[in-house]
Amino acid sequence: MRAEEEKLHLKVIQVDEIQLKKGLSELVRGSVEETLNALLDAEADKLCQTSKYERNPDRVDTRAGSCSRSFETKV
């Protein structure tokens, strides 16, 4: 009877190693992506001396790399 109970317990808990590895790969990839994006944003904040979407009158550049232009239109 003991052997049958052990077989039953083995059937209850099953680990799909392929799914486990796939899930771990996605988790690691997502974690690395978040970390790298945070580092790049922090570096951009330091270079621009302001945060993303923040206005600062002392700042002469923008994070988008645009500059002031005067437009000429024809009427």
UniProtKB/TrEMBL annotation:
InterPro entries for the chain: Transposase_mutator (IPR001207)
Keyword Transcription: no
Keywords linked to the UniProt accession: DNA recombination, DNA-binding, Transposition
Function: Required for the transposition of the insertion element.
Species of provenance: Leptospira wolffii
GO biological processes: DNA transposition
This protein's record includes keyword Cell membrane: no
Family: Belongs to the transposase mutator family.
GO molecular function: DNA binding; transposase activity
Name of the molecule in the record: IS256 family transposase
